[in-house]
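Please go through the protein record below and explain what the tokens say about the fold. Record follows.
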Amino acid sequence: MKRYIFIAALAAGVMSFSSCQDELDVEQHGAVSANSFYSNDAECLEGLAALYTTFNSQTSDYNNWYTGEQHFGFAISDDCYTGGGARGNDSGWEEINELRYTASNAKIANLFKIYYTTIYRANLLVSHVQGSTPTQQRIIAEAKTIRAFCYLKLTSHFGSVPLIVEEITDGKYAKPVASPSEIYAQIEQDLTEAINSGAMLEKSSVNDKMVNVTKQTAQGLLGKAYVYESTFTGANKWSDARTALEAVINSGKYALVTNDFDDQFHKAGEFSTESMFENNRVFDANNLSYIYSVQRLGWRTEMFNIAELDAAQSSGAINCSNESYGFFNPSQELYEAFVEMEGEDGWRLNETLKTYKQLVQIPLRIQEGKTIYGNAGYFCTKVPSRAEERVVVHKIAQNIVFFRYADVLLLAAEAELPANGGNQAKCDEYLNQIKSRAREDASKMRGNYTLTDVQKERRLELCFEGSRFPDLVRWGIIADAYKDKGKRIPSLHGLYDHSDNNNTLEQNVNGYNISYTETASQGFQPKFAQLPLPQGEIDVNEFVEQAELWK
């Protein structure tokens, strides 16, 4: 009979209550204490499976890695507008996207819980798995890698947070915050120990498909941690970063995807040559609890000519599920950044988003009298679910790619900048690999790249992957980039020349018929360079105080 680990769902700041009445202290049947469970390899592997399942499980509408973590990366960036059916469709994301959020924002609280829930499961393994067999040593190394991955996310978003690296057994869940330097030290210790364990899996060839985090995943994350620490805190870890990132590059076990760039974010290209860490969604109608319901990105179905939408989907002219809610549409600034580097016909641009002008040519047109809120004329095609990923109604089987080889190359290029003590030739080599894959014009591949060149490439290559916000903060350029973020939200009515519909004319913006909603946003303020600790954490944790700028 399969045994289940009895795990109290720990999220930092959640208080534990118990009764002193003996009659209520009843042993739970069918449960096994963590103290006695991890007695052999099979049980330890069940615990590891529970850790990986965290990235798939949907415990609530927003407390999961899809709508809670992935969508947060969209909303906080300047690469998209919240969108949706109309203003107010999701006020929580609008607050974040428009820089109007406070410590009471539920999305921020859920993000905090997602990271600490995953850390809790990793801590169970690190605390209880003995490491007496090669399998158990590997499990500990993978748990440390995933824990480091979560803490890297936490400190890059929140700064100082509680540092918990073992199972809490005394009921004292409230912990003081650790400084970013202390958190980076733990991240680097975890990843170094995992790498040096000699127990982690490695791909035998570049074409292997690997679900588990590997030695190279740990090395890549270690390099990323050194880059982040160097830029966030001013510590000089550039040499360490170069060593860790070059270990991945020189391994020859990963390579950029050269055809169908956007396939690597879908079932058609899952666990690609570029993938270094992604979750695994099973295309199985019998496992719907592990398949996220309703992908929110994509075409707002009822706003388009329905017959044209059905025909476009059936013919494969567009890759979009017919159950899309129209959230997180690309910003005009992102589109213009692509055009600057690639031109309007850029290959990577067209693998990432489509313009409304392109949709009209299919044809796929906005209905008479309809308006697409939070849209400037551009639609993301990189990550929204595709029709073939639909298992049953409102159930989508699609992985999230959390870390990929392109990020390693871009981090290595940054670390190799001469200003960071690196080698210009290596910087040029790594950045040109990204540019070459993007099929940029030779005039854009001149070499002698600067930090500005790296910044431009990271924005385009990693858009809709959650890197934009921490990048802007650590480079110290967020105030300029976010100066007017959220002040005016566009709505698309169609083409301005009325060749697609006869909607009321508003403003002519690059040939699009656009109206604007003025919001209460004041634009960027210094406090928005860091997320506030969730108010719920402040309320229950006597050892933490809100960040000074958020008081």
Summary: Residues 75 and 109 are 15 Å apart (CA to CA). The mean pLDDT is 91.
